[in-house]
From TrEMBL, chain A:
Reported function: Component of the COP9 signalosome complex (CSN), a complex involved in various cellular and developmental processes.
Superkingdom, natural source: Eukaryota
Name of the protein described by the UniProt record: COP9 signalosome complex subunit 6
Localization annotation: Cytoplasm; Nucleus
Similarity annotation: Belongs to the peptidase M67A family. CSN6 subfamily.
InterPro entries: JAMM/MPN+_dom, MPN, MPN_CSN6
CDD domains per the UniProt record, alphabetical: MPN_CSN6
Keyword Kinase: no
Keyword annotations of the record: Cytoplasm, Nucleus, Signalosome
Location (main, coarse): cytoplasm
Keyword Ubl conjugation: no
Organism: Lepraria finkii
Pfam families assigned: JAB
From TrEMBL, chain B:
Residues in PCI domain copies: 1-165
Similarity comment: family membership: Belongs to the CSN7/EIF3M family. CSN7 subfamily.
Name used for this protein in its record: PCI domain-containing protein
SMART domains found in the cross-reference section: PINT
Composition bias, Basic and acidic residues: 203-231
Keyword Kinase attributed: no
One Pfam entry name: CSN7_HB_subdom
Source species: Lepraria finkii
UniProt KW keywords: Signalosome
Positions of the UniProt region annotated as Disordered: 203-250
Entry's transmembrane regions: none
Length: 430, 250
């Protein structure tokens, strides 16, 4: 298990079915990236290690929280600080009692190849507390290379298995003793899940990113601002964006609050569609770049002779590496496309969209109706005042009285002309 | 690449693997034909492209008519449908399990065209005697993870929501896939253009509004200034001012 061959720790067995199901919560990703950012900015040299908390129900593991850990150097091995770790873990368990969280694993940063020898001692420590501990390996190199834009998260989750040593070790077996069990890591597939409370915070992060993009758009005209219309509103751009906002204060106030929200949501949708578009183009270029020989497999007697390219002379001898699973997955995606909007339900769909649309239009119409009534009332009031001024102005009477609500009596009579007469107690309108 | 395969394909491939290994030693046509039968009767195998590509199976094509049928059969299992099987009289007889498997796989292919999914059409395409048999078949496919669907008995349809990636590609199907992708691509582009148009519209309207407001304010200020200039401004201004106070003098 020397770290010369970095992936000697990876299991050579193929992952069997019905292995653990892992559900990853986005809060963990936020915690990890926050920790890494702070760690890097403060230029700490210690390795980045933290613990993962979650729940386990049989084969389902959820990873919900994470916290960073203190490390000690124990003659060349990096290990967790036991007492500190125990205290911290207990604190977290005390806080999260309602769904009782337990230590599920730990995270650290590794290269893409996988865990290395230095990670094993800590893993052993964690294994003492939980036998099915998982290791979440975060790959900062993938983030730097920009692979994250492709949509795949830069992390891999490993579970550890004890496997009997490789063939080389068997020669050293002594009768009566088991072959030494080596610790191996096996990659696990995971899915991202989220609970309601988390959705709120993730939404907030995403939306404030969206607003940053909206501000960028309006600032476009400002020459000082170097508004980069980034397709994905990153949160770290928000700092820059707020600076631009102060510079171009007048431009950004063009949009009212509702308009900004509208533009932000439109932008979010546009971003999603852009991502989809990029993926589709990727698939298309992959299919186009496939070598021709698959298009005309040796002419089968029953299937359609739909081959468009010229018939190949060499048939079965030179079949290049065709990635069947990938092609099958692509085929499955494309077959699902027409299923999205089944024709039987098309009329229902149209009706419902129409109904919603008319609802929205109706409400906006009501809103504008209310606004115009308010405006008309204001207008009438001002007009009345001005009329008064005109008729009384020459006499020097400045004070007007009884403005406002009395102008309109209950039946909504039109206030055409108002005469102001001096009554017993004051000014009376008629 | 193993990490990219989804679970379902992984399971099917794992089930197929022993047969791929066996095929390396199946040198005679008889053995290869037997292998085909075994592979298609096995419970979890749904994809056969890798098996088809092995040289021993491919060599079946050049051997006698008797054994070449098995290659055809394997091809039907890989990408053909039940109707392909019934329209070809030469193919070997299928056992019960094989028949069910072939029907399930054909169902997967038929799902790609939603207008095919009425009971009537499916009964005909799959040669099933009663709707009950069809429902059983659909239910068994759902449990096998081949598709997720709902049976709409009132309108006699099967509402499929997703299809597993368990059929192989027909030869020559790549151009159609590319054209489907291109359609999708152009739809994306038009949707994007629409969205951007909307956003521009919103901004434009807001700017328009802003412009009108500033003009209005300017006009008001100008009118007030004129009023001042004509000397009646004191009252005019006061009048304007007291309007805001809204005092009641009753």
């Amino acid at each position: 298990m020397a770290s010369t061959a970095p992936n000697s720790l990876l299991s050579t067995h193929k992952s069997s079915d019905s292995s653990l199901n892992i559900h990853l919560h986005p809060l963990i990703l936020l915690t990890i990236s926050d920790y890494i950012t702070r760690h890097t900015l403060r230029r700490y040299q210690t390795p980045i290690v933290g613990a993962l908390l979650g729940q386990q129900n049989g084969r389902d593991i959820t990873l919900e929280h994470a916290f960073e850990c203190d490390l000690i150097q124990n003659n060349d091995q990096i290990q967790l600080h036991e007492t500190w770790f125990k205290d911290r873990l207990q604190q977290y368990k005390d806080v999260h009692l309602a769904p009782a969280l337990e230590l599920m694993g730990w995270f650290t940063t590794t290269a893409v190849t996988g865990p290395e020898g230095i990670h094993v001692p800590i893993h052993q420590q964690i294994l003492q507390q939980n036998e099915t501990a998982v290791l979440l390996a975060f790959h900062p190199s993938s983030v730097l290379e920009g692979a994250a834009v492709g949509g795949k998260l830069p992390l891999t989750i490993y579970e550890s298995v004890y496997e009997s040593g490789e063939a080389g070790d068997r020669s050293m077996e002594i009768d009566g003793q088991d072959s030494p069990l080596d610790l191996r890591f096996r990659e696990l597939p995971y899915s991202v899940e989220t609970g309601e409370a988390e959705m709120i915070s993730v939404d907030f992060v995403a939306r404030s990113g969206g607003n940053a993009t909206a501000v960028d758009g309006t600032v476009k005209k400002n020459e000082k601002a170097q508004a980069s219309q980034a397709p994905v509103g990153q949160v770290d751009e928000k700092g820059k964006a707020t600076a631009k906002e102060t510079k171009a204060a007048e431009d950004s106030s063009i949009l009212s609050a509702e308009d900004e929200e509208l533009v932000a949501s439109l932008t979010a949708r546009a971003n999603a569609v852009k991502m989809l578009h990029i993926r589709i183009r990727l698939l298309k270029s992959y299919l186009n770049s496939l070598p021709l020989s698959y298009l005309t497999t040796p002419a089968p007697p029953i299937s359609d002779a739909d081959s468009t390219s010229a018939p190949h002379t060499d048939t079965s001898t030179s079949t290049p590496e065709i990635n069947h699973p990938l092609l099958r997955s692509i085929l499955a995606i494309l077959s699902c496309l027409p299923l999205l909007l089944p024709p039987a339900h098309l009329s229902n769909f149209h009706q419902e969209t129409l109904a919603e649309k008319s609802d929205v239009e109706l409400i906006s119409l009501l809103g504008s109706l209310g606004r115009s009534v308010k405006d008309a009332r204001e207008m009438g009031r001002k007009f009345g005042v001005v009329e008064n001024v005109k008729s009384q102005g020459k006499k020097g009477y400045i004070n007007m009285g009884a403005l406002g609500e009395d102008m309109w009596d209950g039946e909504g009579k039109d206030v055409g002309s108002i005469t102001l007469t001096r009554g017993e107690d004051g000014w009376v309108y008629e | 690449m193993a990490a990219n395969m989804d679970q379902i394909q992984q399971k099917a491939l794992n089930a197929l693997e022993p047969y791929i290994l066996l095929s390396k030693s199946a040198n005679s046509p008889r053995a290869a034909a037997d292998l085909v039968t075994q592979a298609t009767s096995a419970p979890n195998t749904f994809v056969f492209a890798e098996l088809l590509q092995t040289p021993n199976i491919q060599s079946l094509q050049t051997t006698s008519e008797e054994h070449a049928r098995y290659l055809t059969l394997l091809q039907i299992f890989a990408w053909g449908t039940w109707s392909d099987y019934t329209s070809n009289p030469n193919l070997p007889k299928l056992s019960e399990t094989q028949q069910t498997k072939l029907r399930q796989l054909s169902l997967l292919t038929l799902c790609t065209n939603p207008s095919n999914l009425t009971y009537v059409h499916l009964l005909e395409a799959l040669d099933l005697p009663t709707p009950r048999a069809l429902e059983d078949l659909v239910i068994s496919s759902i449990y096998a993870g081949l598709l997720t669907a709902k049976l709409d008995i009132l309108s006699q349809r099967v509402d499929v929501s997703s299809v597993a990636s368990l059929r192989d590609l027909k030869p020559g199907s790549i151009p159609t896939m590319v054209s489907t992708l291109e359609d999708w691509d152009s739809r994306c582009v038009s949707v994007l253009a629409d969205l951007e148009e909307h956003a521009r519209e919103v901004r434009r309207k807001a700017q328009e509004q802003r412009r009108r407001e500033t003009e209005h304010e300017k006009a008001v200020a100008k009118a007030m200034g004129e009023g001042e200039g004509k000397g009646r401004g004191n009252w005019g201004r006061e009048g304007v001012g007291s309007r805001r106070r809204g005092m009641k003098w009753m």
